[in-house]
Amino acid sequence: MNVFIFILTNNIIPIFTLVALGFLISKKFDLNIHTISKMIFYIITPCFVFVNIYNTEIHIDMMKVMLISAIVLLCNFLIASFISKIRGYSIGMKNAFANSIMFFNSANIGVPLITLVFSNKPFVIGGETPYLNTAIAAQIMVMMFQSITINTIGFINAGRANTQWKDSLAKVFKMPIIYTMILAFVFKFSNYDFTKFPLWTSLNYGANALVAVNLIALGVQLSKTRFSFSNKDVYLSCFIRLVIGPILAIILVLLFQLKGIIAQVAMISSALPTAVNTALIAVEYDNHPDFASQTVMISTLLSAVSLAFVIYFTRVLFPVL
Fold first, then answer.
1. What is the DSSP secondary-structure string of 78-93?
2. Distance CA 282, CA 99 (A)
3. Residue 130 above 70 pLDDT?
């Protein structure tokens, strides 16, 4: 019960407060979601990715977490293709459905949730949190992989509904995120301390804006969304994202013989709700934005309950203490 209350008060309520503010201000002033999404994809996300790639220490053990994320993403893509064929989805709906289960909220919810879980009982020893840094580092590896793939594969998927895949790929290479990642790795493995560069503070400001602006943007999009709580496709997506995801993660964690903290992070991450950016990408390409927005909203609501169960089972299956 304590875990559920922690998740509800420290993650779900703050998240939905910002979403609600975006919803209300858009109803009042009729904000332009396309303008906001351009700001996110061309300024804020590149800052966020650069800062996190540059700051994250990449250890060999952590690569297993990233590999698990890659395999789960591939499995979800195959599941989406199978379901799309059975249900007769159009190309656009197939790719919107795939994005909704492949990409999850590794930053907006994942990082604060992991911080919360490993900063409280039973992981506090003598007033210290000895497992927190390892847990955050593992989550950042997941977040980095998700950031790279959602800003490449996610865009290509969404764009295929209205354009040829070559045109979608060309548009991806026009996005600054690709070049931001390359620059981040170049500076990361160089001898130059980029934190001394005058623009480092500006990049940090941009990176810190990601969570708030993304959630407000989701609220703006929801204010323009026609809701249908009887949409079976939305609930099917949520079931795969919140239930099948962690089941896949358990299998892979056991296969790769991960244990303890890293195993717990890999499993918790796999159970996070659909990424806010999937809705923003859907808006950018006009590819079933109502479905995408509803999936983000409902999966986040349902995750308040499902994550509590997942966190409990991670402690049972992969004990640390």
1. HHHHHHHHHHT--HHH
2. 9
3. yes
